[in-house]
Amino acid sequence: MTTATPEQATAPVPPRPDPVRKKRRRVDMRQYGILAALAVIIVLFQVLTGGRLLYPGNVSNLIQQNAYVLILAIGMVIVIIAGHIDLSVGSIVATVGAVAALSMNSWGLPWGAAVALSLLVGALIGAWQGFWVAFVGIPAFIVTLAGMLVFRGVALVLLTGGTISGLPRAFNSIGSGTLPSTGTPDLITLGIGALASLALVVQQLKGRADLRRLNLPRERALSFVLKTAIAVVAIMYLCYLLAYNRGTPIILIILATLVLLYSFLLSRTVFGRHVYAMGGNLYAAMMSGVKTKWVNFFIFVNMGFLAGLAGVVSTARAGSAVASAGGSFELDAIAAVFIGGAAVQGGVGTVIGAVIGGLVMGVLNQGLSILSVDAAWQQVIKGLVLLLAVAFDVYSKRRTGR
Amino acid sequence: MSNVILEMNGIVKEFNGIRALDGVSVSVERGEVHAICGENGAGKSTLMKVLSGVYAHGSFDGTITIDGEPVAYGSINDSERDGVVIIHQELALSPYLSIAENIFLGNEVQRGGVIDWNRTNLQATELLARVGLQENAATRVLELGVGKQQLVEIAKALSKEVRILILDEPTAALNDDDSAHLLGLIDQLRNQGITSIIISHKLKEIRAIADTVTVIRDGQTIESFPVKDSDDIETRIIRAMVGRPLDHQFPPRTPDIGEEKFRVEDWSVHHPIDVERVVVDRASFHVRAGEIVGFAGLMGAGRTELAMSLFGRSYGTGISGRVYKDGREIQTRTVGEAIRNGIAYVTEDRKRYGLNLIGSITVNVSAAALGKLARLGIIDRNREYAVADEYRKQMNIKTPSVSSVVGNLSGGNQQKVVLSKWIYSGPDVLILDEPTRGIDVGAKYEIYGIINEMAAQGKAVIVISSELPELIGLSDRIYTIAEGKLTGELDRAHATQEELMRYMTAARNEGAQAS
């Protein structure tokens, strides 16, 4: 029998070399399944559109047009992992867009201050909803359904039904501008790509070296090299396409930062772990000392903040604020999260998955538009893709017996 | 033979190769109140589920005859058609429906799918009068207390023209008045010719109401005898309930008991919903460093409620009392505070309160002590993995890797994960609630070893268990708890199953406060 000896049991244990067992971290097939689906969809539309999908201009457009889904999906995946839902984000986008436009055009704030104010308003709306969910105990579905109505109404009141346009150019460039360019090809974009690739390779190698040093299981060298190489090729190809258009979209920098930041938050921090623990088993999380109310509160504050950012981005992209902005954004974000492999019951999901799910939706949008498929049919197709993605997920889970 | 209404013969029921019932035979006479007794896990409830068709005919061996006719129930509907009605421990009423609607749920007074509300309410009112419940039939069930809900259940049974009424621990959740009323009602029903089978732990009740008692132990019938003929009926029942040889093996241990580590004074807890009801009543106890202290009590005695209320007030309302560690008073108002003060509680219900079943072994092991693995809120995942892997080796958790999902592990291995989690939190006081529930003998032995190890490290260990041999084998000292009160304290030398059972079945105010 092996039982704990005193010192080993209570203190963090220095890992011992264990040469006999060479375990490998299990590959998450679900994650790769979604990535494969994205690749298939890209190739499919690339063929159907005769190569037009990946025209440099189209790629730049794809990123700028779908930035809002990706930003919202990042917040939404956290909400959904924790076992909630947020139906109000589209309305928050409209309200925040109105605040941004008013603050610049009517209240005379400089664009930087307007952005800061917008993000603050988003976070405050999130705090309002988080209060009801976390501390009063009203289901998020109800709270955010109410929020959906309330903040759509607030947007209408703020804009009195009209449109505010003529926003400062610097503000608009958040949504549609690019970093300075050196011409075609843009060397700055290529440089960013090279730097990003280098950072990725260094970070991957360092992580692997850590695992080796601590004698923890590592994936096979071949698959490691292959994966890293594919990622580098993808980054460089994207940058090559952008370099032959107008350069790096500003929004791409924002998105990349968010993805890195929130992936880290969910996978590496105590906060992220608590989110997963609550979604997996709320009672067990409570009985482990997780402050579940505060975690819920912050999840909604964060969702509000990101909805505010999406409001800024989509207002900047449109160059104007209208009260009808953000219509059905919440549904796009929720769809992206579920296509990205999150579980309806909570406890499962990743930022990367949600972003890939958002890209699947984006590529569908873009591809179908290039093919001039009627908007009505686009809706039908997107709905069916969502259904099939989740059906596949349910099916594969049943097969693996959990 | 005509006087026997029900005969169950040689009933064998297995779950995954484990025999819950191993040839039980019961014979019930027409119009009697027949009590079935046994320890937790003896097989009483399983037997009643076999009888009522919850476990369909064919899923068990043995025969059931009613009025001399063999029966084969495929579902609970089949048995109810025959007038065999079971009232489960957890009441099965729909809270937002009225009493009348509940009574006739699934059995509606109807014509062509349209409910005849007048007849429904009329018949319900008659039934309520029969069970002595003075409530309007239109009252919603959620407005009733547990005792009245129990009566609604019985009215529902009567509406089905019940011949054999099975009550599974009917008074477990009731206060004294409600219990008395219910027992009176069972007596009345006997006069009306209805046969009752009641499962109960409360020997006083059995003495008061039952005609015959059958004792079951380890899935077998031990004996069956008339209550009235026996003088010291309680002693006889207890002996039959616990008279099994000690078949557990315990790892050797030399206790090294130090100073007092943990003390609780005048701890009282009220029921979270029925706030008037006292669930734990002025409990005072202490545990020394290196000591293993057992808590013995029957189901519903308040053992788990005591433990959970101490652990961050996870159960109950109106909690009062004081907690000391190493002589200093400590607070345990939230789970976080309890953990920070060095208390760990290993739940009896690991799937509900203990584990994130869709999470890996790694994230479960670290869940209660993430702070140890994090700096500035960032988790060192490599170290986390190493810690989990170390526990896998030490605890002998059988799994391909600590990245495996906990839900796929066996019960014994899941329990080892929960234990790892709480041991890693570095507690001074370790409260283990049914630490070996639902796990096989081999894993039990390993867990006993871990418990001994924790005591050897100088921790104060509290073990709550329904298995008396386990408590006697593990503990240095045992407290007994009955109806929320500590009724006795026995040291290892004096703890026998008979003695413990006597204190465990001691009713309120009857308990001898041993010291």
TrEMBL record, chain A:
Subcellular location: Cell membrane
UniProt keyword list: Cell inner membrane, Cell membrane, Membrane, Sugar transport, Transmembrane, Transmembrane helix, Transport
InterPro entries documented for this protein: ABC_transp_permease
Annotated transmembrane regions: 32-55, 67-85, 92-109, 115-142, 149-167, 187-203, 224-243, 249-267, 297-319, 331-364
Topology class, membrane: Multi-pass membrane protein
Region (Disordered) residue spans: 1-22
Keyword Cell division: no
Pfam families: BPD_transp_2
Protein name according to UniProt: Xylose transport system permease protein XylH
Annotated source species: Arthrobacter bussei
Task performed by this protein: Part of the binding-protein-dependent transport system for D-xylose. Probably responsible for the translocation of the substrate across the membrane.
Molecular function GO terms recorded: transmembrane transporter activity
A Gene Ontology cellular-component term: plasma membrane
Superkingdom, natural source: Bacteria
TrEMBL record, chain B:
Sequence ranges assigned to domain ABC transporter in this UniProt record: 6-243, 262-508
Transcription regulation among keywords: no
Membrane topology: Peripheral membrane protein
Compartments, record wording: Cell membrane
Keyword entries, A-Z: ATP-binding, Cell membrane, Membrane, Nucleotide-binding, Repeat, Sugar transport, Translocase, Transport
GO CC, alphabetical: plasma membrane
Record-given protein name: Sugar ABC transporter ATP-binding protein
Pfam families in the cross-refs: ABC_tran (PF00005)
InterPro entries: AAA+_ATPase, ABC_carbohydrate_import_ATPase, ABC_transporter-like_ATP-bd, ABC_transporter-like_CS, L-arabinose_ABC_transporter, P-loop_NTPase
GO terms for MF: ATP binding; ATP hydrolysis activity
Organism of provenance: Arthrobacter bussei
Keyword field contains rRNA processing: no
PROSITE patterns with a match to the protein in the record: ABC_TRANSPORTER_1, ABC_TRANSPORTER_2
